[in-house]
Amino acid sequence: MLENWVRRVSFSFCMSLVLSLLMTGWVTYLNLGITDTFFQSWGKAFILAWPAAFLIALFCSGLVGRMATKLSNLLLTLLR
Question: Domain extents for the chain?
């Protein structure tokens, strides 16, 4: 039980960190372009986005996993 919880929290931490970093960087670039304040703005957006992304990943990972399983089963059925 503890191993599953640690794995789930670790996965949520890593996934939310990477996605928040990349998405806030991309959106900051689209909104501002490369400016003198780009990295400051990106950092602020990341600090605001990451905690929310972590909680969403943590609490929605089970649902998303079940949805992905159903979708992959459907796709495999259609491809056969």
Answer: 2-79
Give this prediction's pTM.
0.80
Cα 55 to Cα 4, 78, 79: the distances in Å are 17, 34, 35
How many Å apart are CA 17 and CA 50, to the nearest integer?
Answer: 6
Q: State how far the Cα of 56 lies from the Cα of 39, in Å rounded to an integer.
A: 25
pLDDT along the chain (80 residues), means of 10: 92 96 97 96 97 95 93 96
Task: Check: CB of residue 8 under 8 Å from CB of residue 29.
Answer: no
Residue 15 CB burial class (10 angstroms; 0-12, 13-18, ≥19): middle
